[in-house]
């Protein structure tokens, strides 16, 4: 194994932004132009991008930038892709239910793309969309998923808003938030033919189901 060396020079006036970018990537995987424009502009600049990647490679990571969607993303370094304990270090294992929600959110994101500045959906419209896919979940499960997705910069919303009119911003990072093996499993469930033994008279979720359960 070769020696590890770090050769980067950060100007004093850039120290704070450099540290914030590193911590943001390690904390939430993504830096988004739509959410943290200043950090994104700093991290995506070629010279800074090289310095950030050089620093991250010391701990088995790298940063890639998708300029089209405005996403900086933490990823496993190719050099350490097969190293035990590092390969999946920044991969969050979502539950199957949460993956179902991610699929719905990504579908809504694509449907809204290009219509307005930003990409928003109201909580009420999203719940209707969730029901249309026959996904059953409680208010607690929905809110927990929302908080987790916000932590990893997949969506954003205001904690002080509530009810069906609450606006949820959908970020382009949704397309990168997948663990491919689990993604294929969840998609296969959608494509699977309904089993003949399934009860066709099963009732749809109660319209109040999302609001009945207390936190």
SSE-based structural type: alpha+beta
What does the largest sheet look like?
A: 3 strands, antiparallel
Unreliable residue stretches: 193-208, 211-215
**How many DSSP-defined strands?**
6
Helix content: 40-55%
β content, as a range? 5-15%
**Mean pLDDT across all amino acids:** 81
Topology as H/E string? HEHHEEHEHHEEHH
Helix tally equals 8
- The rough form would be described as globular
Task: Give me the side-by-side strand order of the main sheet.
Answer: 1-3-2
Radius of gyration based on Cα positions: 20 Å
N-to-C span: 51 Å
Give the topology.
Blueprint: H1 15-28, E1 30-32, H2 37-44, H3 46-57, E2 61-66, E3 71-76, H4 96-112, E4 120-122, H5 123-132, H6 139-151, E5 155-157, E6 167-170, H7 180-191, H8 209-212
Antiparallel strand pairs: 1-3, 2-3, 4-6, 5-6
Helix pairs in contact: 1-2, 4-7
Distinctive features:
single chain, 215 residues, alpha+beta, three-stranded antiparallel β-sheet, 42% helix, globular
Describe the protein in words:
With 215 residues, this protein is of the alpha+beta class. A hairpin with a 4-residue loop joins strand 2 and strand 3 (71-76). Helix content is 42%, strand content 12%. The strands form two sheets. The chain has a three-stranded antiparallel beta sheet with strand order 1-3-2. The chain is globular and about 55 Å long. It has eight helices and six strands.
């Amino acid at each position: 194994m070769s020696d590890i060396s770090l050769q980067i020079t950060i100007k004093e006036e850039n120290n704070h932004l450099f540290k914030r970018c590193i911590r943001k990537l390690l904390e939430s995987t993504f830096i988004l132009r739509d959410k943290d424009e200043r950090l994104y502009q700093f991290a995506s600049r070629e010279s800074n991008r090289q310095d950030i990647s050089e620093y991250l490679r010391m701990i088995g990571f790298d940063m890639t930038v998708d300029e089209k969607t405005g996403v900086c993303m933490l990823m496993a370094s190719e050099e350490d892709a097969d190293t035990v304990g590092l390969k999946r270090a920044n991969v969050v294992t979502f539950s199957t239910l949460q993956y179902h929600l991610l699929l719905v959110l990504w579908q809504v994101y694509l449907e809204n793309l290009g219509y307005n500045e930003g990409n928003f959906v109201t909580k009420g419209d999203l719940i209707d969309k969730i029901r249309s896919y026959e996904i059953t979940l409680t208010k607690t499960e929905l809110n927990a998923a929302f908080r987790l997705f916000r932590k990893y910069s997949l969506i954003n919303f205001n904690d002080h808003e509530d009810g069906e009119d609450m606006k949820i911003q959908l970020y382009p990072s949704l397309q990168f938030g997948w663990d491919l093996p689990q993604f294929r499993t969840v998609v296969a469930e959608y494509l699977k033919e309904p089993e003949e033994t399934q009860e066709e008279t099963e009732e749809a979720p109660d319209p109040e189901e999302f609001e009945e359960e207390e936190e």
